[in-house]
Amino acid sequence: MDSPAGGNIIVQKKIKFNKPVVIGGFMNQTPLGVLVTSYIVERLNLHQVAVVKSKYIPPVTVFVGRRMRSPFRIYSNADGTLLVVQSEVPVRSDGLSFLSETLMAWLKSLEIKEFAVIDGVPIRDLGRRTAFLVGSADRIKELSSHKIEVAESAIISGMGGAIINECIMTDVNAIALISPHAMDIPDPDSVLAIVKGLNSIYKLNIDTGILEESVNRLHEQLNKISEEYKAAKLEDTDNSMYK
User: Fold this and answer.
1) Quick check: pTM over 0.90?
2) Domain boundaries in the chain?
3) What would the 3-class secondary structure string for the chain be?
4) CATH architecture of structural domain 2-206
């Protein structure tokens, strides 16, 4: 699909789409969206079917899986029921509306069921994470049986926010799943929380074993550090009593 003002969708592999669910992860305040979508692509063995080209996307090359790739890619499963849209670089702010319009026009032609945006809320500490749901009142009611906590308030910026805006204006179903995500250190807990939420909503059966092992190791290390810190503080206090 050509749209000189916003960009081009360059289809690389033609498959028959079957009213797919679309999951989008974009580099924003945190890399959570990219981490989640990368995990889904790997675990479900999705194949790249298209790239997005635009003057609003920085002209960089990403080296992933020993292959050079465009930074804004679209993946699909074999039966065309799941699409993953991913950008590993931020889109220029003055191009968000144009590019989201181009992308959603193409996706709407595929008669997608819903677009689920993944986004992270930047924080500095590590801890147990929860996925929060953002959506219309009707969609939240439909998903109430999944017991995913509903966000009290949220601002979704960047490409994800622009896409949800476009979905609202063009009457396409859209939700967002957001989670706190550590800014400076790996945070597998937030990825796990989001993947579990996606599995529950869309029955994707994404294996979470690797994530759960990473989370358990991380919290074992954090607990060990905490215990060592407490022991050191106690020893320091005991020593100071006799000075």
Assistant:
1) no
2) 2-206, 208-243
3) CEECCCEEEEECCCCCCCCCEEEEEECCCCCHHHHHHHHHHHHCCCEEEEEEECCCCCCCCEEECCEEECCEEEEECCCCCEEEEEECCCCCHHHHHHHHHHHHHHHHHCCCCEEEEEEEEEECCCCCCCCEEECCHHHHHHCHHHCCEECCCCCCCHHHHHHHHHHHHCCCCEEEEEEEEECCCCCHHHHHHHHHHHHHHHCCCCCCHHHHHHHHHHHHHHHHHHHHHHHHHHHHHHHHCCC
4) 3-Layer(aba) Sandwich (3.40)
